[in-house]
Amino acid sequence: MDKISGAVENGSIEYKDFPAHVDEVVCLKGMVHRIREMTGFAFIIIRTARDVVQCVYSPDFSDYRLDDSVAEECAVKVTGKVVKDATREGRYEMQIHNIEVLSHPAELSPIVINKKQLDNIPLDLDLNMRPVTLRNPKERAVFKIQEGIARGFRDFLLSQSFTEIRTPKINAQGAEGGANIFKLDYFGKQVFLAQSPQFYKQMLVPIYGRVFEVGPVFRAEHHDTSRHLNEYVSMDFEMGFIDSFYDIMNMETGALRYIMELLQREYAPEIALLNVQLPVIENIPVVKFMDAKEIITKKYKKKITDYRDFEPEEEQILGKWAKQEFGSDFLFVTHYPSEKRPFYAMDDPADPAYTLSFDLLFRGIEITTGGQRIHDYNEQVAKMRARGMDPADFESYLMAHKYGMPPHGGLGLGLERITMHLLGFKNVRYASMFPRDINRVTP
């Protein structure tokens, strides 16, 4: 009788382990990335889950004979001896003893993916062919780095006594309302795709104290710009028993510092491949919204047309200012006008026209919105009514307030957007594995 042990051995070595196996015969599984035939020998480049490994075929190494059954994008199992690369110091390669072909492609790809990067490929073609184009080492490195960002966020918050949660994506109300919300027919009842886990993470603060989630959110914004997606991954946290919304900014600063250090330490191959300039975070400067507007006006001589929010050019100016004045790639802007913040944002007791909220700018572009929330039931109901909202529509959300909430606050950080700006992309779609926008729902 067969028994299942609960473990699966890959049976394949990783390139990082080559130095420990010099002159040993090992097994390597992967895809044939490229074949370079030379006079009397050939280089067979194998693409594994994270590496591109040079293997060398020669009749001198074994009785195995290379033939046309081995082609690019075949899945293979290569057996051979690990040796030092004679032409590249500090590198290793495998002398091929045998190649077992596990599968063949049905046809050749119309895109050559084994170059260093996909040159001159239009964005639409790149996205249409995503199952293929992601095989390019630089393309796939983007999402290893993105893995590191989400991993760092999760690991840091777990170390700070946060509980990871899973909130529903089909909701009776929208967290932010407005027209940018997807409506669904749910067995004859109208419901909405989640714009944010906001309501649920607030509800869970009295239970767990500190909570976070990394998950998809949906915005029915009819934008076709380089910085908007209709589905993206939001990294959210909410924390209770705060003294002020500065506690939230401090927690995010710690999380970002941890993320950048993790990327430097454990994602060095991808960082080097994409030539990423990781920011060094010691501390992050803070400026109030109206003070920021004054800096833009007086120092940079730009006329202000909107005193409720920032234009993209103004964010760029503030990013430049933070770099020049503080050497920082990041800048917190606090005390946004109340009319531009959601109904759950706590107003500043010193001036209720402004909120105890903030945005975080990274290299001149907003990546985070956060702040302190209203925790008093009567105060929350009063603000809803002042905005023409019916508290009865938010009964389950207000239940948490009615039966007691600690002072709390939190934030949301867009995973694709921080990836985009960290890697210097001009379009957020390059930072989304399978982007969803107003025109695209495939692949």
UniProtKB/TrEMBL annotation:
Write out the GO cellular component annotations.
Answer: aminoacyl-tRNA synthetase multienzyme complex; cytosol
Supply the alphabetized keyword list: Aminoacyl-tRNA synthetase, ATP-binding, Cytoplasm, Ligase, Nucleotide-binding, Protein biosynthesis
Task: Tell me the residue numbers annotated for binding L-aspartate.
Answer: 176, 219, 369, 373
One Gene Ontology term of the molecular function aspect: transferase activity
Where do the segments described as Aspartate lie? 198-201
Q: Subunit arrangement?
A: Homodimer.
Q: What is this protein called?
A: Aspartate--tRNA ligase
Q: What phylogenetic lineage does the species belong to?
A: Bacteria, Bacillati, Bacillota, Clostridia, Christensenellales
